Amino acid sequence: MMILKTGRIAAFGLVAVLAACATEVRVAAPLVTPQTRIASSFSSLEVTEVTLPSYAAAEDIYFRAEDGAISPTGTLWADLPARAITLQLSRDLGAITGVTVAPAPWPFREFPAAKVDVRIEELLATAEGVFRLSGQYFIAPEEGGRASSQSFAIEEPIAGGPTPSAAIATARGRAVAKLAETIARRGL
Fold first, then answer.
1. Residue 29 contacts by C-beta under 8 Å, 6 or more apart in sequence?
2. Would you state the pLDDT for residue 48?
């Protein structure tokens, strides 16, 4: 009799897990093609995978409350944030500069003219209704050229959307696009 009860409890637990997976909500930042064109002093760029704070490296979308506490919203990103942001930066930098840009590892035979390394300190929605993206980026030329590093702090309003999480994803997409433009304008 005890085995039967234990089996039922395990079955109910499995059903609960499957039900939770079935209602899992994931959102992605919408693709937007940058309209800005900025010349680059480098003929090609490799974007290394961005580094993130531990909370932002997870699939959860995080929110900072007024008291400063950071907690998950209950919704997940559609892709791992480091991968998604690296791919968006590569795509946006290529569109903005018109040069060959690829994420690491570099897929071409010749080395890239420079590497772009982005280290993010904050990546979250805030109680003030903005999405905050801050950190530092580094430009490292392969040969010659000017190495540079700059800090950045970008805030994008979280406007209404079909869901609060979709609005956060849209704001993140705009923030990363603005970061690509900032890198192109100040670092390349």
1. 84, 88, 169, 170, 172, 173, 176
2. 98
